[in-house]
Amino acid sequence: MAEAYIVDAVRTPVGKRRGALASMHSADLGAHSIKALVDRTGIDPGAVDDVIMGCCDTIGSQAGDVARTSWLVAGLPDHVPGVTIDRQCGSSQQSVHFAAQGVMSGTQDLVVAGGLQNMSAIPISAAMLVADQYGFTTPFAESPGWRARYGDVEVSQFNSAEMIAEKWDISREQMEEFALASHQRAKAAIAEGRFKNEIAPVTLEDGSVFEVDQCPRETSLEKMAELQTLLPGGRIHAGVASQICDASSAMLIASEQAVKDHSLTPRARIHHLSVRGDDPIWMLTGPITATKHALAKAGMTIDDIDLFECNEAFASVVLAWMKETGAPHEKVNVNGGAIALGHPIGATGTRLMTTMLNELERTGGRFGLQTMCEGGGQANVTIIERL
Hints:
Blueprint: E1 4-11, E2 15-16, H1 26-41, E3 50-54, H2 66-73, E4 82-85, H3 91-104, E5 110-118, H4 126-132, H5 144-150, H6 157-167, H7 172-191, E6 202-203, E7 209-210, H8 221-225, E8 245-255, H9 256-261, E9 268-277, H10 286-298, E10 307-310, H11 315-325, H12 338-341, H13 345-363, E11 367-374, E12 378-386
Active site: 89, 343, 373
Organism: Nocardioides daedukensis
EC number: 2.3.1.9
């Protein structure tokens, strides 16, 4: 089978809610990572076959195929198309999958894959907020087919996170310890400059340069113990959940022929890619079954993987996944996760993969596995091999 290579990867620093990137138009936000990627690789932008960007809540500044407009805003050639995709939290990870599949099929040679999200400008699940005006909590809740299959059970990520904590016997205290470790790891990574190679600094309207992730907090177990739970009598609270934020990220995926033709030096190879569905009411358990499926398909075990990125939508999600797969915490989200660094939904997939690639290079690891829970009870898994 033909190979798909990661030539380079870049991201913006992550801006906290109403932070440094809050006023940046979504197309400009996406354009920043795309332009930085083109500049870093030195690739002829006219040779790119497609631009695939993940983005959820494609309304307002994110409407109108924001992948295409981001490319154009970056000042790049008109003839290169773009497409925006939505696989919920896994949108930009799916962008990499589609890009790699295009290359592996032989129909494309160079594809930009990435994602963007300005959550300050477009609130999370904005479409659902609109739906609320019409008396239902989710856009699909009034579907007769949906109700016939799943009944009137409320579909909620908060409910799912609580259900997972209960089923896998994960206490509030365990989740708070995990969350604290995420912040400590992220702050250590920032202090050591581990993210510098992957971040394309942003010059803001006031002329200042934004180049350091804003989300890590000064927190403690004592502070988190005082937080009110999101659901009455529950265990989940804001301190053990991912943060709302703004960012974009992008990767260049290339065929072996493109690597030769353009004198490129790949940094990694796509070793495996897959996506699986799970119970949509449980919603956030997808990474468990998807990881087991991916390892079996790849002929690998959990011990073959040097680094893991499992998105920290909620602490309970990752803790349950670690229990089920046997992935050791010392190899999981070693530079912090979404609890500390934020979860800019459409951009998170390629943000995580960019960080994982750089960390494999820093530590000399060979294989990295990335997965994340996604709306609808889905999960992507990508295994990359450092070259």
